[in-house]
Design brief:
The chain folds into two domains: 31-113, SH3 type barrels (Roll); 118-188, Roll (SH3 type barrels). Helix content is 15%, strand content 34%. It has helices spanning 2-18, 60-63, 68-71, 113-117; strands spanning 31-34, 44-47, 54-58, 78-85, 88-92, 99-103, 109-112, 121-124, 134-135, 145-146, 153-159, 162-168, 171-176, 186-188. It has a five-stranded antiparallel sheet. Strands 13-12-11-8-14 form a five-stranded antiparallel sheet. Strands 2-3 form a two-stranded antiparallel ribbon. Residues 14-20 have low confidence and may be disordered.
């Protein structure tokens, strides 16, 4: 009897494991580091703590692929910044959300989210919760107009977790650009919706 139950469970779970899971929405952190890759010939050293213990190196080949699904591939590479200590930035260096510290260089540009979002075209990520994919007349309003993940929006202003967006020439409103856990709800123009 026991082998039959195990076989039945295996057959029921097999179809679930064959489908690719949607990628986790990353934590937004405090901002974005835009990397200028010209002149970089060696892997970028990463540290467990700012300047104290090197943990690994960030391969140059990975720079072009990291976060393409979020930011698009027609712009310089971007890293999500989770913390800052002087010239040192803690960044997510892979799609699993692992973080390490790197020393910011003059040719790189760190931008806090409120500045980075302003003027950018965004769209909801496909795996954003449906209840979050709506435009509201005011931040925190209970119900708004539902949107789809492929609806482009231009960010006019960002305040906290909210962004005032222009949907077309005649309609605008507020959206949440990150959820209450700090995970991104939006991706950027040029990126395929996820």
């Amino acid at each position: 009897m026991r082998p039959v139950l195990i076989l039945i469970l295996f057959c029921l779970l097999l179809p679930l494991s064959s489908h690719a899971a949607a990628p986790m929405r990353p934590y937004s952190g405090i901002g974005v580091l835009t990397l200028a890759t010209a002149g970089i010939t060696e892997p970028i050293p990463l540290y467990h703590d700012p300047g104290i213990s090197r943990c690994c190196r960030f391969p140059l080949a990975d720079l072009g692929r990291l976060n393409v699904w979020l930011f698009g591939n027609d712009q310089p590479p971007h890293l999500l910044v989770t913390a800052r200590k002087g010239d040192w930035l803690e960044v997510e260096y892979d799609d699993a959300g692992r973080t390490a510290w790197l020393k910011s260089e003059r040719r790189w540009s760190y931008t806090p989210w409120e500045q980075f979002l302003k003027g950018r075209m965004v769209q909801f990520l496909r795996n954003s919760p449906k209840k979050q994919m709506q435009v509201l007349p005011r931040p925190g309003t209970a119900e708004g107009t539902p949107l789809t993940s492929n609806k482009p929006m231009k960010v006019i202003l960002a305040q906290g977790d909210w962004a005032y967006v222009l949907l077309d020439q005649n309609s605008a409103g507020w959206i949440r650009w990150r959820d209450s856990d700090g995970r991104l709800l939006i991706g950027f123009d040029g990126a395929a919706p996820k």
